[in-house]
């Protein structure tokens, strides 16, 4: 992939601000000025080519993406290495706070998770190369630009990555509805931690679950005993942030 299309006000402006290489920006002729003007100003400062076109052109460039009248052609998304994520935590002087996504397939879920990850200080997200959503225009749009700031690493074998993290003293915590302990009953979030979020339908795979040091569940008081994957991830991330803020 030689280029990537991203759409939406937040995605494009954050891509510009983060220093990502933007080759060209298309703005719809009838787009609302208050949405596009900050992008035009930022793009002109950086010398990025801006072209005003019919909205249908944007629909063709970014099919299925709610682009809000602005689309950019960017350099391909730069995935991080796991080591980069660990270094990011070290540079901040914080115990690692990592998310491991076990076959999260919906790009909207991945985007929402990245948005919350940025808000809660997650140092990085790790996804498998196969059977997992990757960072696309839809993910970027759903993340409101957070995809530009939260490092995402792709790994061939999530199980081996978990083993490697454990060797570095990081506790691997799986979220599972059948777990005995609730997220409010464990002290594991205070230290270096990697949270595993399972697939939208079937949860964590058996091998991944067996590799977890601790399994925790979210308390459920209603008739439905499961949450959307990105919502569940958000609840756990904010609990980690709460513990660390109070600690």
Automatic annotation (TrEMBL):
It comes from the Bacteria. One of its GO terms (biological process) is methylation. Residues 5-80 form the RNA 2-O ribose methyltransferase substrate binding domain. Keywords: Methyltransferase, Transferase. SUPFAM superfamilies: alpha/beta knot, L30e-like. The keyword 4Fe-4S does not apply. InterPro entries: Alpha/beta_knot_MTases (IPR029028), Ribosomal_eL30-like_sf (IPR029064), rRNA_MeTrfase_TrmH (IPR004441), SpoU_MeTrfase (IPR001537), SpoU_subst-bd (IPR013123), tRNA_m1G_MTases_N (IPR029026). GO terms for molecular function: methyltransferase activity. Transmembrane segments: none annotated. Belongs to the class IV-like SAM-binding methyltransferase superfamily. RNA methyltransferase TrmH family. This is TrmH family tRNA/rRNA methyltransferase YacO.
């Amino acid at each position: 992939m030689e280029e990537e299309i991203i759409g939406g006000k937040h995605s494009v402006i954050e891509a510009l601000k983060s220093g990502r290489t933007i080759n060209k920006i298309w703005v719809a002729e009838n787009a609302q000025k208050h949405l596009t003007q900050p992008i035009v100003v930022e793009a002109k400062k950086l010398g990025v080519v801006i072209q005003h076109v019919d909205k249908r052109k944007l629909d063709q460039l970014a099919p299925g993406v709610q682009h809000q009248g602005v689309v950019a052609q960017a350099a391909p998304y730069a995935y991080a290495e796991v080591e980069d994520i660990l270094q990011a935590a070290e540079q901040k002087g914080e115990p690692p706070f990592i998310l491991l996504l076990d076959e999260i397939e919906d790009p909207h879920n991945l985007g929402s998770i990245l948005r919350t990850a940025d808000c809660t200080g997650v140092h990085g997200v790790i996804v498998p190369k196969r059977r997992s959503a990757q960072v696309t225009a839809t993910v970027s749009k759903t993340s409101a630009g957070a995809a530009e700031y939260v490092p995402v690493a792709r790994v061939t074998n999530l199980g081996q990555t978990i083993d490697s993290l454990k060797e570095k003293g990081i506790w691997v915590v799986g979220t599972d509805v059948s777990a005995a302990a609730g997220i409010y009953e464990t002290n594991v979030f205070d230290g270096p931690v990697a949270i595993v979020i399972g697939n939208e339908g079937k949860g964590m795979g058996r091998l991944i679950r067996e590799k977890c040091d601790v399994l925790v569940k979210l308390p459920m008081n209603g008739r439905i005993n499961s949450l959307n994957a990105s919502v569940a991830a958000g609840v756990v991330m904010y609990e980690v942030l709460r513990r660390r803020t109070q600690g």
